[in-house]
Structure formats: structure tokens, C-alpha cells
Amino acid sequence: MVDSSAPVPRLGLCLSEFPLDGDGRWRNVADVVARVEASGAEGLWLADHILWHSKAIDAQSTLPVLASHAQRITIGSCVLQLPLRDPVTVAKTFANTQMMAPGRVVCGVGIGENAEEYERLGRSMRTRGKVIEASIDEIRRVWGERGGTRWMNPEPVDIPIWVGGRAEAARRRAARLGDGWLPYLCSPRWFARHRALLEEEAAEAGRDPAAITKAVVTFVDLPSVVSEQQDAAKLEHWFGFDPTPRSIAYVKQQALPVGFELREYGVGDHDGVVTFHAPENPEHISHSMVARKGAATHEFPIKRLSTIMREHGHRRLDVLKLDVEGAEYDVLDQLIAQKLDIDQLLIEFHHQLPGIPPARTARALQALRDGGWGVVHVAANLREFSLARR
């Protein structure tokens, strides 16, 4: 997590879980905090999920624990899914946390996007925007109450609330209500453009844009880091799918990193065997399920993405890269319809192939936007798109 509003950007580290002790417990929190402080980072932040596909820290209960060990770093949530929480208990948690890390606590909040968590907790995703705004108001009201027989004690002092999210609604919410803005999965160009919009919206709301901290959550690839929990490179486990002989031979000739596995079947819109057409250029290796006049044909197996995920025991994917030579449209239609849980999509569209008009790519992109993904980057050839969950 990077705070870009300071003259020199400040760097913090965000965790979704702690390293496990030998008996599978989180008892080494003090050591984690000490290592973060020794690294030179200026903050330690916690992601937040109540129900998740893997071990996940409960940020609300864990922030005071971190603060009790921290000597100099900022402690914050990145971000607390506020519509799933009671705002008064959130206010109390951060007031307590501040007692252990005075002046070094940030309350980062967002709406989240995991439908299962909302469903299991009996909350509505449709009203989460209104709920988070009402909850922010309630937290500040509770923090500001004085007198009488019941008020927030210990008394909170200047705990900033940062609003997380990439969506326009989140940005506007930060401009109106936030002490900070915390988007994620965005390019520098996107961030610059939306930062300017945030500042305009803050000024329109009668606020000083400079008083709103601008931060961003970014992911860093550390291929040398090995996870003791998974006995594999933490950020280097992925799968490749291709049934064609040239591709298989090419992959097997490479020095493959630890964690890479090739599956000798393709990704398509059904489970079965289909006809692949060889490339026109004999030096190329990519076959296509799109018919090519006069091309040699071969029969190869394919599987639905949902079938592949089920067979591998995956309920969600961090990243899916699709370069399937024209078959991406049917695959995308299916993953949208099945509401597959995928954080990032890297797609090469093939509207340059015969029979695939650019309008089909435009329809696919609109369907992805409607399905909850936002475009993060577009290559200069206007065919390669990076998208992230909003």
C-alpha cells in the first residue's frame, strides 16, 4: 500500500494472513510487527474477510493486537468491509487501537464484493453503498459524542477514515466523506486521471482536495519468497492449458519455474473434443478453434473453465490469462453467466480474424463491465486488455 500524497511516497505492507507457527497457529504477531518495522515500511495494514476461501485475518479483532506491539508504524485496515460490520463496535475497536498507537491508526473502509459473505451474513449487496455511508456517519457521530453517562471511552482523537475502492461511486464517496482514498489494481495513468477527478469532486463538495490522503494498493511479485505453508514459491504457482503439439513441445523445451504445470487440453465452452486449425505461417505455433480456409486440422480435447476449476479444487482465481485464438468470446460469456470468482483478467481479443467483427469485442467488454470487471489497461494494438474486479 502506497500513500502518494506525501512529497515522498510512503510505503506500507498489507497482510491477509500471518505466517503459521509449527503447530499451525498465529502466535508470532509480535515478530511480524518487529520485522515490518525493521524493514523500513511506514505502515502495517490488514485486509479483511469474515468468510473466505483460505485463512483470512479478522481485521477488526486483530488491529489492536498489532498496535500493542508497534512502536512507530501506522496500523490500519485495508479495508474493513463496513456494510458487514456494526458501526458502533467498529468505532470502539479503533478507539481502543488508538490507545496503543496514538496518532498512528487509520480506519480504511470499503463495501467488498464477495456475494457469499453478504448472503451468509444476511446483508444486501444492493444497498451496501447507502449502508457504508450511513455507517461512516454513525462512527463519526459516536466518536464525537461527549457528556452524559454513556459515550466512547477511551476518547478517540483524529482517527482518519479512508474510503477504498476503484469504482466511480467509491471515488465520489471518498471525495465527499473520506479523509483518504484507497483504490487498488490500477495503472499509474488510471490513478492520475481519477486522482484529478477526485480533487474536482472534493472541491465541488466544498472540501480542500489537499486534505484528502491519496493512496493506492499495489501488488508486488517477489519470486524468491518461498511459502513454508505451501512448500512452493508463494507467488509462482500457475497452470497452462494447451493441447496442440507445437505448444507442448515449446513449453517442454523451456526452463520452467517451480510451481508451473502444463495441462494438455484447451479451454473452451464445453467439455469434449473439437477441431483445431493449424496456423497459416508454418513458423507459428498457435492453433485456433476458428476455421481457417485451407488450414490443416486436428482433433484435441477442451474443457470448460468451471470444470477445470472444480477438478483443481479452486473456488477462485487470482489471474486468468486468455489467449485462445478467437475462442475467448464463448469462454467469457460462460464465466460471466456462471459468476466465476476471478480477480484479474488478461485477455487478447482476436477481432482481426475472419468472421469476428470488432463489435463482438465491444459487446464482450461491456458484458465484463456489467459483470463487475473494470478495464485497467489497454495495449497499443487495441486487442490486449487487462481487467480487474471492481
Short description:
The chain is α/β, with parallel strands linked by helices and 390 residues long. Helices cover 32% and strands 23% of the residues.
Description:
With 390 residues, the protein is α/β, with parallel strands linked by helices. It has 2 domains: 2-216, TIM Barrel (Alpha-Beta Barrel), CATH 3.20.20.30; 226-389, 3-Layer(aba) Sandwich (Rossmann fold), CATH 3.40.50. It has 11 helices and 20 strands. The chain has helices spanning 29-39, 59-69, 87-100, 115-120, 128-144, 168-177, 188-204, 245-252, 305-312, 328-337, 358-370; strands at 2-3, 10-15, 43-46, 74-77, 80-81, 105-110, 161-164, 180-182, 213-216, 226-227, 232-233, 238-241, 260-263, 266-268, 272-277, 297-304, 316-322, 341-348, 373-378, 384-389. The strands form 5 sheets. An 8-stranded mixed β-barrel has the order 1-2-3-4-6-7-8-9, surrounded by 4 helices. α7 links the parallel β8 (180-182) and β9. α2 (59-69) runs parallel beside α3 and α6 (168-177) packs across α7. The radius of gyration is 24 Å and the shape is elongated. Residues 227-236 have low confidence and may be disordered.
Features:
390 residues, alpha/beta, TIM Barrel, Rossmann fold, 2 domains, eight-stranded mixed beta barrel, four-stranded mixed β-sheet, 32% helix, 23% strand
